[in-house]
Amino acid sequence: MIDTHSHKxxxxxYQYMIIGIGILFIGYxxxxxxxxxxxxxxxxxYASFFxxxxxxxxxxxxxxxxxxxxxxxxxxxxxEMSEMTIHTKNDKAMIFFIKENIxxxxxxxxxxxxxxxxxxxxxxxxxxxxxx
Length: 132
Known about the structure:
The chain is an alpha+beta fold. The protein has helices at residues 12-32, 36-47, 113-123; strands at 2-3, 8-9, 51-56, 60-67, 70-77, 83-89, 92-99, 102-109, 128-131.
């Protein structure tokens, strides 16, 4: 499994700030009687626990999404992809995996690009690979 640098998670400081703002919205809504703001506060608190991790394995792209302790996983196989676009700069490479006009951006070490291309070509001979 190839680790990526495409992890999306709020830092602890921002997470606590968003939770605090959500609690303030809920408190103010109860005080003011505007109960629709409670929903907005709950959505903020829920969103602060969102975390997304992406990995590349021998079959394709593995996407893990964590929300409030629940973990969902989905996989996009190389066989299902139509195109890969690779942009290399310094020691990092940004790869767009495209399936049915939907792209997933992943950042990896530039030294791992050829390994990923070999995996993609091995599983999908028709995949189009573009270098920018």
